[in-house]
Every structure is written in structure tokens, then in C-alpha cells.
Design brief:
7 helices; five-stranded antiparallel sheet; single chain
Length: 231
């Protein structure tokens, strides 16, 4: 009786794990993406305690791997499981949006005298001025190639980077005060200040940052930041 129960437990566990593996149909927008099955393990009889312990170990392994994929550098080490899932969802949504924008841009046919978001995206990307969009918490939503080159990050790595955390420690307090000031006062005019930004390779670059508050419905939503490197 105990042997059969253990075998049944293992059989149920295997079925649950198999069901947890994502599969995509040919009609899905994700068709063509290879599905990597979980590695099979030799069938053995496990107690309920051992089954739960193995589940916890695997869950920790998956969360650690997910944490390592987040483009937030050392900040992600402080994330608990809920924060990891939250930021992973945001990143996936951003990547899906980028794919949709690229697809729309590739099939876009301009109409004379009429602009579009695809036109703006194209101009934003090719602009030689280092530009980025940041939330009110200073985390980057998007950055053009010039800004990525300035900071030494790839396009994916720079997404979610905190601009205030990427500011040299001696300049962080003053920079934070400028951000709070423009958001608090709902200033739609440009606010500029000088600080040193820390690149991915830890090199410090002195820049003049121009903060432009973007307002929608009378409420601040994000900032367009222009970085002007100075010697």
C-alpha cells in the first residue's frame, strides 16, 4: 500500500510538472519559439515531504534564474519573489510592445502631411542626442541608441535602469531634489542640472541633464531626459 501510494504521488507530480510547461499553437504569435521541456528524472518513490521540498528547491532555482535575467544590475538582488514577478511582467510587456512597434514600423506606409507614432519612434531612435523616457521614479522606459552608447548598456539592459541610481553618489542627493522639484511643481518647462552619471563599466561621465515633464490630463506621467556630455 505504501509503495503504491508513493508511485501514485510521483505520477501525479510528473503530470503536474508536465502541465506547467508552456506550449504554443501554430496560430499563436509566439509560434516558432522552441519549447524546452523540463529535464526528466528517474522515477522514484518520494514521500509528501520530499515532494514539497523538491518543489521549493525548484521554485527557488527558477526565481534565481529569473532574477538574473532582469536588467536592473545590483538592484535586483534586493527583490523578493513578488517583486521579481512584477518586474518580469513589466519587462515582458515592454518587449511585446517593442515587437509590435517594430512589426508596425516595417509595414508602415507614410501618408503625406500626416505623422504617426512610428515616425516619432524612428526619429527618436536615430537622433544623435542621447535621449530617454523615464517614469516619475527615474526608471527608464526607453532610450535611444545614443543614450545606450553613452551609458555602455544594451537597449534591453537600459530598460528599467534607475537614472538616479546611475548617478554618482556625491551627486545623488542634489539630482533627487531636482527630480522631486519638477514633479511636485508640475513644471512643464525644461529643468537642467549638471551631474556625473556612472556607466556600466563604472566610468563616470559628467553630463548636463535636461528634464522635460510630460503631462497628460493635467497630471505628470513621465519625463523626457536629454543628456549632454561635457568634459
Amino acid at each position: 500500500g505504501g509503495g503504491k501510494g508513493g508511485a501514485n504521488t510521483m505520477s501525479s507530480l510528473a503530470k503536474e510538472e508536465q502541465a506547467a510547461i508552456p506550449h504554443f499553437s501554430n496560430s499563436s504569435s509566439m509560434s516558432g519559439v522552441p519549447v524546452v521541456p523540463m529535464s526528466s528524472e528517474p522515477d522514484k518513490r518520494l514521500s509528501h515531504k520530499e515532494v514539497e521540498q523538491r518543489r521549493r528547491e525548484k521554485a527557488k532555482q527558477y526565481f534565481d534564474e529569473l532574477r538574473g535575467l532582469l536588467p536592473y544590475g545590483g538592484d535586483s538582488a534586493k527583490f523578493d519573489k513578488n517583486a521579481i514577478l512584477h518586474h518580469s511582467i513589466l519587462l515582458i510587456k515592454h518587449l511585446i510592445q517593442e515587437l509590435e512597434q517594430e512589426e508596425a514600423a516595417s509595414s508602415y506606409k507614410p501618408t503625406p502631411g500626416k505623422g504617426s507614432s512610428a515616425d516619432f519612434k524612428s526619429c527618436f531612435d536615430v537622433n544623435r542626442q542621447p535621449l530617454c523616457f523615464a517614469g516619475l521614479d527615474s526608471r527608464l522606459w526607453d532610450a535611444n541608441s545614443a543614450f545606450c552608447t553613452l551609458m555602455g548598456y544594451s537597449r534591453m539592459e537600459v530598460t528599467g535602469l534607475s537614472l538616479l541610481n546611475a548617478t554618482a553618489p556625491t551627486d545623488t542627493e542634489a539630482a533627487n531634489a531636482h527630480w522631486q522639484n519638477i514633479v511636485k511643481n508640475n513644471q512643464q518647462t525644461c529643468l537642467s542640472y549638471v551631474c556625473r552619471l556612472v556607466r556600466k563599466d563604472t566610468q563616470h561621465i559628467q553630463c548636463s541633464l535636461d528634464l522635460n515633464l510630460m503631462v497628460k490630463g493635467g497630471k505628470p506621467v513621465c519625463l523626457l531626459v536629454a543628456a549632454n556630455p561635457s568634459n
